[in-house]
Amino acid sequence: MQLTKFNYDNKIVRDFGIATIIWGIVGMSVGLLVAIQLVWPFMNFELQYTTFGRVRPLHTNAVIFAFVGNAIFMGVYYSLQRLLKARMFSDFLSRLHFWGWQLIILAAAITLPLGLTTSHEYAELEWPIDVGITIIWVVFGINMFGTIIKRRERHMYVAIWFYIATFVTVAVLHIVNSVQLPISMWKSYYLYAGVQDALVQWWYGHNAVAFFLTTPYLGLMYYFLPKMANRPIYSYKLSILHFWSLIFIYIWAGPHHLLYTSLPGWVQSLGVAFSVMLIAPSWGGMINGLLTLRGAWDKVRSEPTLKFMVVALTAYGMATFEGPMLSLKQVNAIAHFTDWIVAHVHVGALGWNGFMTFGILYWLIPRIYKTELFSKKLASVHFWIGTLGILFYAIPMYWAAVVQGLMWKEFTPEGVLKYPNFLATTLQIIPMHMMRAIGGTLYLSGALLMTYNLVKTMKKGKLLANEPAEAPELTPVVVNERSKHRRLERKPILFLVLALITILIGGMVQMMPTFLISSNVPTISSVKPYTALELQGRDLYIREGCVNCHTQTVRPFRSETVRYGDYSKAGEFVYDHPFLWGSKRTGPDLHRIGKKYPNKWHFDHMLDPTITSPGSIMPPYPWLIEQTLDTTATKAKLNAMRLLGVPYTDEDVVQANDKLRQQAEEIAADLSQQGADVRADREIVALIAYLQRLGTDIKAQETPVAVNE
């Protein structure tokens, strides 16, 4: 049989590898800054661009899309060529993909600190960057499927199944969750509102974790772990069951992020049911990986790469056990909005994604540079420092979560909240946040040690940019296979279509009725659109990232209705583009904050939070008092809302800025009477207007119906 000679492209693998290392250090450093600010808020250096609210999404985007994203592409470009015995379809598309992705990351790093954000978690980037992501993702898809089509290996190995599912599902998630109405170059409103927006966001948010942080890494595990251990994957049949059940079940689980909210109960129940089922395929993948090491555990003692892989798989198993457990309503009632969610996410991010990335880098870089790793000893030191970092991070966060959850709910024997002041619970867990920062420092130190080790490795060797290879061309002869799945593996486009259908079922069943059947989101006649000033204030609230610390949904618990007021109703959010329910309470819920305090209280709170809340870890916002409110886009904002179904009249739009100034002058006059001289055209006035509106559209029931705790 005649062999065809060709070359693997290692240069693109090297480029994505270097980007992974650089962005990993950047993302982890920003994460450490975020953690430190939860202990010492002055660590924002008194700049509006480095406050927790603006920097926290920068951290998540840098870690998810810059660090993990580049690592995915590094691993895919290396493994895909070898599994298919073909060079990537187009060197030009490979380069376009690389540089386009780096430009997207750079755009995120610039816009997020400037407060240009949509506020959707893990999807904060504004619409021009979303368009760029779409284009580059299509470039990646063309390059990947072009390579699959020109392959020299007939069957597609299991890793490629996960790459295909990742490509198609991320495309669907990104498009559906990014449907926005632009009103300017860097401002847009989501088409969905309130409950529907929440459902779409957490359908996206949970499945971004599933199909960006999980499925591609499972594909990398199926390729790199057998290579490192020099063992075949434990079970081909288990991999088939693992793959199809995982991608079918995962897509249903998003609503477990919205338990006890005003999301329709049937959607919540579906989310819980499928979340519990999810443990089976998730652990199927973990077991398939760990059992691959049968007969190779002696290598784990001596090979740092395998150490990282074993802990990565263990962290994956733990995180995928926690997910179903947290979806149980009894557990969710305690854990949600606490630091348990932070710990859960970071066990996955630091353990699963981080450690597998480190293991692959240590294995891959020496091979493309045709040399040995500079120091296995340093790699082992990195492993132990990183493992300690994860433990120092996660354990205090679990501890903090239990303390928070129980303190929020505790009543005295007389039936009064024992800790009515939310700040008491925040101050109680500051020592745990200090421990978390120490854990982050250890983890980052390990990454810096790895960087040194890999730089020395690169200097010791020389990049084999075009690695020679040879393989027979794919012949048209088809051998009959008994296995239907084997036959499917020869047909990549059919495989793509079947994966697409599999992931669409869950999303359609959950979302279509919520959008088409009005009884799912009952309206309330007393709920009116925001005034022009309140809408501007809401946009400032979004700009400052307040949703990163404060929720805006009161759950039907006795502890919450006593603390905050009547529980939240679906009809209260029908004009909210986007929804702002939040996912973490570092501060109290704000849905019923309107009219609870005078305007002067809010002014003082933003000027210096310790005036109203001694010991607060919220940073001051003096720039809101100094900066003039930009009203040039007021009419455009109201017109956009009209297009989205908000019932503003022609008069509302024409007189928008006149009415805005009138309401602003009333608030400024009230502030002046209270001893706070501030001009009516300042941003603080608009923010106060919005905060004073929250939760005032319906009258609180005197004896609200609540879940008995």
Protein model, in words:
This protein has 709 residues and is mainly α. Helices cover 63% and strands 3% of the residues. It contains 28 helices and four strands. It has helices at residues 11-37, 52-84, 91-111, 127-149, 158-177, 194-212, 215-229, 236-250, 265-277, 279-291, 297-302, 304-327, 329-335, 339-368, 376-409, 422-428, 430-460, 484-488, 492-516, 532-543, 558-564, 599-607, 609-612, 623-626, 634-643, 650-654, 656-673, 683-693, and strands at 3-9, 180-184, 187-190, 466-472. The strands form two sheets. A two-stranded antiparallel ribbon has the order 1-4. Strand 2 and strand 3 form a beta hairpin. Helix 12 (304-327) runs parallel beside helix 15 (376-409). The radius of gyration is 26 Å and the shape is globular. The N and C termini lie far apart (74 Å). Residues 700-709 have low confidence and may be disordered.
Largest sheet: 2 strands, antiparallel
**What general outline do the C-alpha atoms trace?**
globular
- Describe the oligomeric state of these chains in a short phrase: single chain
**Number of helical segments?**
28
Number of strands: 4
Strand order of the largest sheet: 1-4
Low-confidence stretches: 700-709
Structural class: mainly alpha
Helix percentage: 55-70%
Compute the separation of the termini in Å: 74 Å
Question: How much of the sequence is in beta strands?
Answer: under 5%
